[in-house]
Specification:
Elements lengths: L1 E7 L6 H14 L4 E6 L4 H10 L4 E3 L6 H12 L4 E5 L16 H8 L3 E6 L6 H11 L6 E7 L3 H12 L4 E6 L20 H18 L2 H9 L17 E5 L9 H9 L3 E5 L13 E4 L8 H6 L1 H12 L4 E4 L1 H5 L1 E5 L5 E3 L4 E7 L5 E9 L11 E8 L1 E3 L6 E5 L5 E4 L1 E2 L3 E4 L9 H24 L11 H13 L9 H13 L9 E8 L14 H12 L3 H8 L2 E9 L18 E2 L17 H20 L4 E7 L3 H12 L4 H4 L8 H18 L6 H8 L2 H16 L3 E3 L2 H13 L7 E3 L7 H9 L15 H4 L1 H14 L18
Parallel strand pairs: 1-4, 1-5, 2-3, 2-4, 5-6, 6-7, 8-9, 8-10, 10-11, 11-21, 12-14, 22-23, 22-25, 23-24, 25-26, 26-27
Antiparallel strand pairs: 12-13, 14-17, 15-16, 15-18, 18-19, 20-21
Helix pairs in contact: 1-2, 1-7, 14-15, 15-27, 18-23, 19-21, 19-22, 19-24, 23-24, 24-25
């Protein structure tokens, strides 16, 4: 059992240089060497791993209890001949002015002999005072030897004699050599392009050590380390596949975190946000750790398919931890050191910017302000920060309490499936956090498997044609007009090109599918009218005399009302609803049940409703329709949709509940109470969208989920209407992220939940006109806009036609 700690008098005294050199020396001697770093620093560990070509780790007594520290140390010792532990900062420097978390603390917990590095530059006799102070500052300092760094050969004899008289072993010296200095940038480590240069320096350092250090004396001290008793920590095994970003931009990974996941049975799938086009297949979770994304912002931005895949998967509910650099990558924009801004994943509506100086540094506790994936409301976990970049939209889902002075700040984003913020989390010091993350991954895996079994069509969905998207975008840029002059309309036509696999876009045969169904929740007094209105308006659509029919006539759009769950069998005059001409009969049941009393429908009824929506799109595909819009008709459906949104987005009912078709204050109060009760009853299904939809309803929403799935299966763009259609879109996307590529959003509407739903989908509304009519009217309003945009796309002159140079697209517009 050979083990030593290399500690120092302070940061910059040469600890990392000497540890790297010793690792190389021992490696050259044929010794299998392992290295660990005291404290939360993952950068010095990367130096060690580059020399040793093996995984390293950390020992942090602020994060971990004594038994965990010993366990982590023993895991390294059992696979090596000698273990080197590198200290952190000055030997006694811990949290604040205490020793908790210090190198001294780790040496005491593990009973590890310590070799002190003294930076002798500018000193001679004062060296003795420094060493005497360090050896006598605390009882049993564990310091057994000294290495004199930056000391000339002519002073070594006197320095060695001085420490011998103190009972400390002199172990040699290192003279100052410029060519052996390991430089750092704002966070420390070299880039991959400098690896060869780095190795040359380490070889130079090791060569010097072999001449002027007492290597045998160091090994002798290491051999005196005592063996620690440890208790093996058996981890709960999970069959999970976790994607881990790892490349030049994302290189700050706690190896111990990855080890924790491996010990728990997880398979790690590494990928490069710089070079790969998409996330690995069949993943159940995602880790976006820190690094230097700001130095690679342009290249990251140019990898559009990866940015989009990550954004789509996170929005669909893939559990994700995004720390520091990973957090910056999730912003809309990221600023480089030169203040250039580049588009990123767009999950967080803000910009990561260069603050010009260190923002936050040190240990902290992170307390959840609401229930999140990693912690319930008011629960805390420990973390560490070190960053120069900041965010103009830092979030407020956690209270961050700095350990050194108890100062607080609100920051970070947390949901049932996402943690995003600057604080770094160490799993072995926050095992509950690690377990909760893996629990979320297991739920995602189980729900995905269940969804695929219940709706096999989900496995048939592929992404849109990216080549067609690129060509359509290039065509827009070649048209003689200002770049991106038609804004979202250009993006939508480009999206349709990708869906239709051609730049020759056609949307001349169009229809709006209106799902009509009743909701049992109307029993609770959440509407002005009764269920009989649903049947009347649905039949009016079939007759071509409802609002959407009048508007559809202006844009040559067919209205297809679908009876998927109308409660009434007959109209007031006795006319049969089920056989009403022009009303497609796909009724699953006579309206849903009151979800405050029982689940709205059975699983079989839910899946039937979804499949009826898919079959309706299949029919439209066979008839040659090349674009569809969604609509709905059903008294009480703003209550069901808002309840779903409140749970799926983890928002308070008061914040997302609107007046629907015109509730008064007392009606609105009842509606909020009903949605609050729904959240209490069914909130546990937030990460299981099918179970949630089965519990709350409605059938119209389930049918629309099927329409979105069908659009993706049959390659037809689908335009979403208002809040009910948006909730259905979110559920569909959570079932299969690729569906998002086939959805176009029309308007934002008046319902309060709509903006949050669009943010969750990563979509922008074209129309902001406070629409609240329903029936698909907002979606149908988009078709004339598409027609006008297509006229420009197809007929306008190009820069080539008029023989002038096109605008250069710098990606800034």
């Amino acid at each position: 059992m050979s083990r030593i700690m290399i500690a120092g008098t302070g940061s910059g005294c040469g600890k990392t240089t000497i540890v790297c050199g010793l690792c190389q020396c021992f490696k050259d001697m044929g010794l299998k060497t392992s290295a660990l770093k005291c404290g939360p620093d993952y950068i010095d560990s990367m130096f060690h791993s580059r020399v040793l070509n093996m995984r390293t780790g950390n020992l942090d007594s602020w994060f971990c209890d004594d038994e965990t520290i010993k366990y982590l140390l023993a895991r390294k010792e059992c696979e090596s001949d000698i273990t080197i532990v590198e200290g952190v900062m000055g030997y006694f420097d811990g949290q604040g002015f205490g020793t908790k978390g210090s190198s001294y603390d780790i040496a005491g917990i593990t009973d590890t002999p310590v070799i002190l590095i003294v930076n002798c530059r500018g000193m001679s006799n004062s060296i003795g005072a420094v060493i005497k102070g360090y050896t006598g500052y605390e009882k049993d300092s564990h310091i057994r030897g000294v290495i004199f760094n930056n000391l000339s050969s002519r002073l070594y004899k006197d320095a060695a004699q001085m420490v011998k008289e103190m009972g400390i072993e002199p172990l040699g010296y290192l003279p100052y050599k410029k060519e052996a200095v390991l430089e750092s940038r704002h966070l420390g480590l070299v880039t991959s392009a400098e690896v060869e240069h780095f190795q040359e320096k380490v070889t130079c350092i090791a060569s010097q050590m072999k001449e002027t250090l007492d290597i045998d004396g160091i090994l002798k001290i290491a051999e005196n380390a005592s063996e620690n008793e440890i208790h093996y920590k058996e981890k709960k095994k999970r069959n999970l596949r976790i994607a881990v970003a790892k490349d030049e931009a994302f290189c700050f990974l706690y190896e111990d975190n990855l080890d924790y996941l491996r010990q728990s049975g997880c398979e790690l799938a590494y990928f490069s946000p710089l070079k790969d086009s998409s996330l690995p297949d069949n993943i159940d979770g995602l880790l976006l750790y820190g690094g230097y994304p700001e130095l690679h912002a342009e290249e990251l931005s140019e990898n559009i398919s990866m940015r989009k895949d990550i954004a789509d998967r996170i929005r669909s509910g893939l559990p994700c931890i995004a720390e520091c650099g990973g957090f910056l990558y999730l912003h809309e924009y990221l600023e480089t050191p030169e203040k250039e801004k580049y588009p990123m994943a767009g999950i967080i509506r803000g910009t990561g910017y260069n603050a010009g100086k260190l923002q936050r540094f040190g240990y902290m506790s992170v307390k959840a302000a609401k229930d999140t994936m990693l912690a319930d409301k008011n629960q805390s976990f420990r973390a560490h920060e070190f960053h120069y970049w900041n965010s103009d939209c830092p979030g407020s889902d956690y209270e961050v309490i700095k350990a050194s002075d108890n100062s607080t700040a609100s920051a970070g984003y947390g949901s049932d499936t996402l943690y995003a913020g600057f604080p770094h989390i160490y799993f072995y010091g926050n095992e509950n956090v690690a377990e909760r993350f893996m629990d979320a991954c297991m739920k995602y895996k189980e729900n995905s498997r269940q969804a695929a079994e219940l709706i096999p069509e989900l496995d048939n969905i592929k992404g849109i044609n990216r080549d067609a998207v690129i060509k359509a975008k290039a065509h827009w840029n070649g048209i003689a007009k200002p770049l991106h002059g038609l804004g979202l309309m250009e993006e939508i036509i480009t999206q349709i090109a990708g869906i239709q696999n051609t730049v020759d876009v056609h949307i001349d045969k169009r229809a709006v599918i209106v799902m009509c169904a009743d909701n049992g929740i109307v029993e609770e007094g959440v509407t002005q009218t009764g269920q009989d209105v649903t049947a009347v308006v649905s039949c009016n659509m079939a007759d071509g005399i409802s609002s959407v029919c009048r508007m559809a006539a202006c844009s040559k759009t067919e209205v297809i009302p679908v009876n998927i769950g109308i409660a009434a069998d007959k109209l007031a005059d006795g006319t049969d609803v089920g056989t009403y001409k022009g009303l497609v009969n796909r009724r699953v049941m006579t309206g849903t049940r009151n979800f405050l009393k029982e689940p709205a429908m059975s699983q079989e009824q839910l899946i039937q409703a979804v499949h009826e929506g898919i079959k309706q799109v299949e029919w439209c595909s066979e008839q040659g329709y090349n674009i569809l819009a969604t609509g709905e008709m059903g008294i009480g459906n703003t209550t069901t949709s808002t309840a779903l949104a409140s749970i799926l987005l983890n928002l308070e009912p008061e914040a997302v509940t609107g007046r629907g078709a015109g509730l008064d204050d007392s009606g609105l109060k009842r509606k909020v109470e009903v949605i609050t009760k729904a959240k209490e009853m069914y909130g546990r299904y937030a990460d299981n969208p099918l179970k949630l939809l089965q519990s709350i309803g409605g059938l119209d929403i389930a049918g629309l989920v099927g329409v979105y799935i069908g659009g993706a299966v049959y390659g037809i763009p689908v335009v979403a209407d208002g809040v009910i259609a948006a909730v259905a879109a979110l559920i569909a996307v959570k079932l299969q992220p690729e569906i998002n590529d086939y959805i176009i959003v029309s308007h934002q509407g008046k319902e309060p939940a709509m903006k949050a739903l669009l943010d969750s989908l990563g979509k922008k509304a074209v129309i902001h006109a406070e629409l609240a009519l329903g029936e698909g009217t907002g979606a149908v309003m988009m078709f004339p806009l598409f027609d006008m945009a297509l006229q420009v796309y197809r007929e306008n002159t190009t820069f080539d036609d008029i023989q002038i140079a096109a605008y250069e697209d710098y990606g800034k517009c």
